[in-house]
């Protein structure tokens, strides 16, 4: 069915390009930070840490990458949109108020928001996760409910972990956790759900 004027056509892009646009800004943030950490800069009479100035460059980078991804694919996921918006808001507050805490709180808010959305759907007896991933993961209704519950709990755990890391450890530790720790945790969670996906798959075996 052809897309309507209100529903832009989705276009495929090479996997490496999508990955570069999604993860590139975070990788560049990490590289810029480790090459300038420990340094301070005075601009307009105000002293800024390297973290603050790297954050100032990260905001337009994530916005540009998100726009390019949308122009290339004709589609953005909810998480991509929310991430770009919260990076702009909390990154902007970090730079404006010269306070690192705002950007560090951003993952907590993202994961708490998604946990709340999934939890609200579960209370209504619905899996909002299936509305996003049904075309990619053919699961039974029971499978979707189980996966949604686990995902909601996982998001809560991520939010709590981020809070503990940024509040108790150094900025270096938080940057490493944000760059490497969170992707590893996501990958481990997805791998741990292989049994569930297999048991509740509705895809016919060849």
From TrEMBL:
Give the membrane topology, semicolon-separated if more than one. Answer: Multi-pass membrane protein
Q: Which residues cross the membrane?
A: 15-36, 48-70, 76-97, 109-127, 147-165, 177-196
**Main localization (coarse):** membrane
Which compartment or compartments is the protein found in?
A: Cell inner membrane
Domain of life, per lineage = Bacteria
Keywords in alphabetical order, please. Answer: Cell inner membrane, Cell membrane, Membrane, Transmembrane, Transmembrane helix
Question: Which is an annotated Pfam family here?
Answer: IspA
Query: Which InterPro entries did the record assign?
Result: YciB
Listed GO CC annotations: plasma membrane
Q: Which family, according to the similarity comment?
A: Belongs to the YciB family.
| HAMAP family cross-referenced by the UniProt entry | YciB
Which PANTHER family does the record match to this protein? INNER MEMBRANE-SPANNING PROTEIN YCIB, INTRACELLULAR SEPTATION PROTEIN A-RELATED
Function as written in the Swiss-Prot or TrEMBL entry: Plays a role in cell envelope biogenesis, maintenance of cell envelope integrity and membrane homeostasis.
* Protein name per Swiss-Prot or TrEMBL: Inner membrane-spanning protein YciB
Query: Which source organism?
Result: Jannaschia aquimarina
Question: Its encoding gene is what?
Answer: yciB_1
